[in-house]
Amino acid sequence: MAATSQILIDIPMPIRTPRLTIRPKQVGDGALTSAAVAETWKELNRWMRWAEDREAFTAELMEIRNRQVMASFLLRETIELIGIETQTGTAVVWCGFHDIDWKARQCDTGYWVRKSAQFRGIATETANAMLRYAFGALGMQRVGLTHSSGNEPSHRIAAKLGFHFEWIQRRANMLPNGECVDKYCYARLDLANLPYLEVHWEGR
Hints:
With 204 residues, the chain is of the alpha+beta class. The protein is built from 5 helices and 9 strands. It has a 9-stranded mixed beta sheet with strand order 7-8-6-5-4-3-2-1-9, sandwiched between helices. A hairpin with a 5-residue loop joins strand 7 and strand 8. The longest helix has 16 residues, at 59-74. The protein is globular, with a radius of gyration of 16 Å. The chain starts with 14 loop residues before the first strand and ends with a strand.
């Protein structure tokens, strides 16, 4: 894991779970992301600050952002991934790590599942895999998770995966409608008592 520059940090991919192949974004993913955003717009527009203007998510604009994300991955600034359902080949979940501090080995994780794949445990499986990967492959010492007040599905996942509740940041999350709501902050410091999930990546 030791590296003189964060650019040289090894990030073995893909990550495999019983149902998913989770991989870095690649050229051409803009169109499939645009389609998934359109399908899931009602849910995203309720909770995700970035989901304000539907016209900002055309295939072309998403491909531009997609290639910027690919560059950020190479620079080890952010790690944005797509989870493909192995059996069907369908992209079902968008996930990753952000606010990465390589020196302190800390980061936050997040995810969203397209509407047609919701209520099947995909988000829980993804978050579990991301934790195992963060503490295993990336050597993280802390992984954070946040959600807005009222987002009960995210609250349930945090509880199910044993995230420790840390604090509430008052009116810290702005929703797409401009309302500022409380942000609930959680973290895990290790894999102790994490529900079992078979997860593999290159070299493991």
